[in-house]
Each structure stands twice: as structure tokens, then as C-alpha cells.
């Protein structure tokens, strides 16, 4: 069975293949939803759970199979789902450290 998860940093769905098989006329289990608000549940948090140890198939523009919740959600209009955040902090720290060191040496 195929599972799709929205990957906001790339603007595509990440597709996985799970070991389970669902019959053509079988009903799928009802997904467990996070705590709802008056507006409902955000679409990036709703969905069925990803099975243990799925095989990654690739990236596609439209969802295939069952949709699972996103890994991380940074907010509406976010450009990153958190994969690059540690590297951005590290790069910013190195840049600030370099500027402070250069400024201290020049004095």
C-alpha cells in the first residue's frame, strides 16, 4: 500500500510503500485525529498513521495512496519543515562569530 506525506520544504508529497495490503472492498480503520478546534483539524495533521519501517519510493506532485500527517509543521506559509533549521543556526552562528572576531581584531 502506498502512503503520501506532504513535504513543505520541497512543495511535493513524499511517497512510501508499506508492507500491509488492504483488500479492494475492505473498510480502512478510522484515523485518530489530534485535538480539534472549532474550525476542525489542520490538513497537515490529519491522516492515517505511517506503518513501521516503510520503504521510501520518491517525491511526487500529487498524493498517492493514503495520506499521512506531515512530520513537522511550521505554520501557514512556512517554507521549511525543520530539516534545514540546525544548519541555518550553525551558519548564522559562524557568520556572527566571524564578524565579531573581525571587529575585535580591527580595534
Structure summarized in a few sentences:
By secondary structure, the protein is of the alpha+beta class. It has one helix and four strands; from the N terminus they run E-E-E-E-H.
Topology, element by element:
Layout lengths: L1 E6 L4 E6 L37 E6 L5 E3 L16 H22 L1
Parallel strand pairs: 1-4
Antiparallel strand pairs: 1-2, 2-3
Q: What proportion of the residues form beta strands (DSSP E)?
A: 15-25%
Please estimate the helix content.
Answer: 10-25%
Lateral arrangement of strands in the main beta sheet: 3-2-1-4
Average pLDDT, all residues: 79
Radius of gyration: 20 Å
DSSP strand count: 4
Query: CA-to-CA gap between the ends?
Result: 65 Å
Shape, please?
Answer: elongated
> Secondary-structure element sequence?
EEEEH
Largest sheet: 4 strands, mixed
Helix count from the secondary structure assignment: 1
- Content-based structural category: alpha+beta
Low confidence ranges: none
Description:
Helices cover 21% and strands 20% of the residues. By secondary structure, it is an alpha+beta fold. It has a four-stranded mixed sheet with strand order 3-2-1-4, with no helix packed on it. Strand 1 and strand 2 form a beta hairpin. It is elongated and about 75 Å long. The N and C termini lie far apart (65 Å). The mean pLDDT is 79.
Amino acid at each position: 500500500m502506498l502512503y503520501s506525506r506532504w513535504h513543505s520544504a520541497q512543495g511535493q508529497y513524499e511517497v512510501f510503500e508499506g508492507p500491509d495490503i488492504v483488500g479492494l472492498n475492505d473498510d480502512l480503520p478510522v484515523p485518530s485525529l489530534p485535538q480539534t478546534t472549532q474550525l476542525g483539524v489542520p490538513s497537515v495533521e490529519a491522516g492515517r498513521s505511517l506503518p513501521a519501517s516503510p520503504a521510501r519510493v520518491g517525491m511526487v506532485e500529487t498524493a498517492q495512496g493514503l495520506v499521512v500527517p506531515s512530520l513537522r509543521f511550521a505554520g501557514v506559509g512556512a517554507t521549511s519543515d525543520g530539516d534545514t533549521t540546525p544548519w541555518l543556526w550553525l551558519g548564522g552562528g559562524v557568520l556572527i562569530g566571524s564578524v565579531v572576531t573581525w571587529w575585535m581584531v580591527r580595534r
